[in-house]
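Appendix B, record 7
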Amino acid sequence: MKTIRVSIDVHKPLPDSLGLVNKRLLDATTEEDIAKHKAIDDAEAMLDAAQFARRVRRRLGFSQAEFAMRIDVSLHHPQLGTRQEKPYGCCKSTLLKVLDKAPEVALAALQ
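Structure tokens (predicted):
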């Protein structure tokens, strides 16, 4: 593998020709456009979280109702077809990670 060393002068601005930022497009972006893109990003993140929860639940061999009871949440939270609310805060995503990596320990701690 070949190593290439590059030095960058942080005080010298990058040329516009690099195409890093389309200034006209940036200036034309409205708050409504930003809100739409945020909603799309949030929906994709929820889908990722739902797929992760589904994978963990299936790997453990639990039904949705049993999984909800075991991790002490409403059945509507792990029910992956429901997307009206955001059930996966940092605590739930952390719990899912622990369930994924050390299910016996996590389930024992939840009893």
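Remarks on this record: Residues 78-87 have pLDDT under 50 and may be disordered. The CA atoms of residues 52 and 96 lie 8 Å apart.
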